[in-house]
Each structure stands twice: as structure tokens, then as C-alpha cells.
Amino acid sequence: MYDIVYILKQFAAPDELRYSLRSICENMSFNNVWFYCGKPIGIKPDIYVSKPQNGATKWERARSSLIEICKNDEITPSFWLFNDDFYILKPFDRLEPYHVGSLSDHIKRVESRHNNKISAYTRRLRECSALLTSAGLTTIDYALHVPMLVEREKMLEALERFPSCPMFRSLYGNYANIGGTQRKDVKISTPTGIPDENLDLLSSSDTAFHGELGRFLEKRFPNRCRYEV
Description:
By secondary structure, this protein is of the alpha/beta class. It has a single domain (3-220), classed as Spore Coat Polysaccharide Biosynthesis Protein SpsA, Chain A. It is built from eight helices and ten strands. The strands form three sheets. Strands 3-2-1-4-7 form a five-stranded mixed β-sheet. Helix 1 (15-27) links the parallel strand 1 (3-8) and strand 2. Helix 5 (152-161) crosses helix 6. It is globular and about 50 Å long. The mean pLDDT is 92.
């Protein structure tokens, strides 16, 4: 079994994380749950590492945490990388990753929704694609809001070889040549968004969680799990 690692903001709210933990306890087999950086009130992981994140942007802070995680030999050599807004709705043991297709296609889709304007986000995607291409690597977009099984050693190699690339999921996936299956993203971003009952995985934005999606999760996972104090 693999460990599950959450990288959390220092003063993260517990609401979304609570349901994420309930969902993994019901639908996954795993070893230990680790929290890095933040530990919300009322929730206690198996192991907590209270190391502050370094960096001016959220990407830099996430990168600094990932480097620490990948150097930690007490974490299983491969681990599940989680966000606090990832939810597992059905029994899940899939090791093969998911992706959303090529970076170039994803860039076109995003920019077409904004009158073909380049945003800060798509600029980072373009930079990531160019970096991967120049290194002779594939250019698949792994920035999907689902759990990702990460090999510590390979992720560390990728982060150290390409220190300027903030899109670490796509960087790792292409560097480690993990392949995978294409699917639509499962993140709901609006308060009125209603989850599909048939989904196996789900993710939420902060605003969506306090709308229909939050009510869905409350009904779907009503019972406290062992990580709730």
C-alpha cells in the first residue's frame, strides 16, 4: 500500500479536507496519511510535518514542499499526491494515471473560452510545453484534479532538473513517462454545479464546495472518519 500526502496551507480550513478524508477511508486502501505544512483544527493525520513553505507564489511554495516530501525516506517510495478538495466516490485502486490530452490542445481550449487571449495560466502552460519539447519529452497535460501516484525519486529528479517549471504534475508525468488515459476533468467550479452520481472521482473549488456540491458530499459521507478529532 502507498502513503497519501496532502500539501496544505498553513491556516487551511477543515471543511473540504474533512470530506476528502472520509472519502479515502471509505473507498481506498492506503498506508499512512501525511499532512505537510498545515493542519486544520479538529483533524489529526497519521503523521504531520509542520515545515513552512518557501516561495512568493503558490507554485513555488508547492514546489518547496514537494522537494521536502520527495527527500523524506519515511514516506513510501511511491505515494498518492492529494489536494484537500479531492474526493473518492467509489472504490479506487487505479495505478494508471489520468490526463486531459496534450498541453497544446488544452491551451487552445482554455484560450478559446477567453476570446483567444493568453492569460497568466496559459502562459505557464505554454512555457511548460516549450520546456518539455526542448528536452525531447512528451507534452501531455496531467493537471487533472484527481489523485496522482508519484514516485518520489523521479519527482525529485524532475523538480531539480527543471526548477523554473511551476506545472509540476505535467512536468513529472512527462519526465517519468507515466502514460495514462485521457478523461474530462472532474472539478466543479460553480456553487450551482451538481455532481454526477456516476462519477468515481470529484473535486471542488472553494465556491463550489459551499453550494450544491457541499450538500452532495454531506449526504454522501455523513459519518466521521478516524482522522476527525
